[in-house]
Amino acid sequence: MRPARIMFVCHGNICRSPMAEIIFNDIIKRERAYALTAASSATSTEEIWNGIGNPIYPPARRELLLHGHTVPARRAVQLGRDDYDKYDLFIGMDGRNITNMHRIFGSDPEGKVRRLLDFVGGGDVADPWYSGDFATTYRDISRGCEALFRFLFEK
Predict the structure, then answer these.
(1) Which domain holds residue 51?
(2) What is the CATH number of the domain that holds 22?
(3) Cβ neighbours of residue 36 under 8 Å, at least 6 residues apart?
(4) In what side-by-side order are the strands of the sheet with 89-92?
(5) Helices in 3-53 by DSSP H: which ranges?
(6) What tens digit of pLDDT does each residue of 29-60 get?
(7) CA-CA distance, 98 to 91, in Å (whole number)?
(8) I want to staple 116 with a disulfide (CB 3.0 to 4.6 A). Which of 25, 90, 132, 144 is the partner?
(9) pLDDT class for 2, splitting at 50, 70, 90?
(10) Which residues are catalytic?
(11) How far is CA 78 from CA 10, 21, 75, 93, 121, in A?
(12) Closest CA to 139 of 154, 120, 152
């Protein structure tokens, strides 16, 4: 497997994408696949005030802790056009994230933009900010991250 830099992306970077970043980084550690790195970002600035991003949303943090993950201190950051050259894959949580990434990047000439649940048959990761269902979101992200990891090793 070649080194891969993965950026998980959602709307605000306080729920789904940081959950994916943390889950995927734990898979990297578990599998000792240190050629991989993961980060996360937002397509919006809604959770970033005066250049300072909000921390991970407390219910998302609780769900991660419930499943044994360490949750490092982190703050929301926005995805930028220049990130396209810094990462190998951009993994969006839903179709709207994909649309917004294409808008931010201008295009996707290398086919780097994907949706997480496409690695397990398709669909969107529901936004728990609206549903309040962090357990389902965790389950979907975890399944997607495991499938993404397997996909990277098939290449």
Answers:
(1) 4-154
(2) 3.40.50.2300
(3) 1, 3, 4, 5, 6, 24, 28, 149, 152
(4) 36-42, 4-10, 89-92, 113-115
(5) 16-31
(6) 999 998 999 999 999 999 999 889 999 999 99
(7) 8
(8) 144
(9) low
(10) 10, 16, 127
(11) 10, 15, 10, 15, 28
(12) 120
Beta-bridge partners for 8: 40, 91
Is the pTM higher than 0.70? The answer reads: yes
Give the angle subtended at the CA of 69 by the CAs of 67 and 72, to the nearest 5°: 145
* Domains in the chain, number: 1
Name the amino acid, one letter, at 79.
L
How far is Cα 50 from Cα 75, in angstroms, rounded to an integer?
13
Q: What angle do CA 10, 88, 63 make, to 5 degrees?
A: 35
Encode pLDDT of 105-133 as tens digits: 999 999 999 999 999 999 999 999 999 99
Residue 97, amino acid: N
DSSP annotation string for 59-128: HHHHHHHHTT------B--B--GGGGGT-SEEEESSHHHHHHHHHHHS--TT--EEEGGGGGT------H
